[in-house]
Amino acid sequence: MQFPTLEDVVGNTPLVRLQRISAGRNNTLLAKLEGNNPAGSVKDRPALSMIQQAEARGEIRPGDTLVEATSGNTGIALAMAAAIKGYRMVLIMPESASEERKQAMAAYGAELISVTKEGGMEAARDLAESMIARGEGKGLDQFANPDNPLAHYRGTGPELWRQTEGRITHFVSSMGTTGTIMGVSRYLKERSPEVQIVGLQPEDGASIAGIRRWPKEYLPRIFDASRVDRVLDIGQEEAEIHMRRLAREEGIMAGVSSGGALAGALRIAERVENAVIVFIVCDRGDRYLSTGLFGA
Residue ranges of the Tryptophan synthase beta chain-like PALP domain (predicted)? Predict the structure, then answer.
């Protein structure tokens, strides 16, 4: 008998029907539980994909130093993948990231470099690029790397089509690097152009981990606006309320971006009927406990 490795169990996450939070109008609301991945988030998929594909092209090899800017989940996933594969991982992130995220990255052996909260992800990306230009490591660049959405075209999209038996009508996803929504949209639209792809971005002034409203000059190069049918603005309080609803009414403890995804899915449900609406639960809520959000 041949047993799987940790790489083999990334993906194929559960898709579950919400039982107490109603979508009304004979709609079915389904949550894709990406926190069930080994390192706890949807980012396990692109992290492994980017390293595997770079290795296959001969661009990196075990022992190399990899440098990446991250707001949290990709960093944890890359730290895990680097530990599996034998790379030194340097992660650059805003100092505002939760302590659980920082400690998880360090637990996998990654080296952390912080930039100011005010500088945010833009400053982290700038520093990563300058380090790579100085030869201090090799970059994967999740924001421009086609192997990011490829993971979802090959994995998440086919899983959703199979799990819903082709009945999915709406796909709702937070947009950060946009890798998830780009890859899933490409796959689902090839199967059924009628499937509606809904992206989420924060309202002006909102700070929701995992969802970004990028300045034009920092817009991820993998993003193609034509693959998204509709974009919804999500408020800070709205995302946090629905995050707590997921935990308290459905037993699904997840992060704030997942609360935003639920809020977006419910907005869609108000306007449609007999729909099968899938939203991405990006990660697990245990990495946000120190923020106090669940006690509000």
Answer: 7-283
Widest distance between CA atoms in the chain: 57
For every residue of 18-77, DSSP letters joined together read: -SSS---TT-EEEEEEGGGSTTSBTTHHHHHHHHHHHHHTTS--TT-EEEEE-SSHHHHH
List of E strands, 126-195: 138-139, 170-174
Q: Is 224 exposed, middle or buried (0-12, 13-18, 19+ CB in 10 A)?
A: middle
Q: Is residue 198 helix, strand or coil?
A: strand
Integer distance in angstroms from the first to the last C-alpha of the chain? 49
Q: What's 84's DSSP letter?
A: H
What are 253-279's pLDDT values in tens digits? 999 999 999 999 999 999 999 999 999
The pTM for the full model equals 0.94
pLDDT tens readout for residues 116-130:
988 888 899 999 999
Q: Could you give the CA distance from residue 62 to residue 283 in angstroms, rounded to a whole number?
A: 28
As a whole number of angstroms, the distance between CA 101 and CA 50 comes to 21
d(CA 177, CA 41): 14
The CA-atom distances, in angstroms, between 199 and each of 53, 184, 204, 231, 233 are 27, 11, 16, 5, 9
Taking only the tens place, the pLDDT of each residue in 41-56 is 999 999 999 999 999 9
The ranges of the chain with pLDDT < 70 are: 296
Query: In angstroms, rounded to a whole number, what is the distance separating the alpha carbons of residues 46 and 83?
Result: 15
The rounded distance, in Å, linking the Cα atoms of 151 and 190 is 16
Just list the catalytic residues: 43, 257
CA distances from residue 26 to 22, 161, 180, 196, 274 in whole angstroms, order as listed: 9, 20, 27, 18, 5
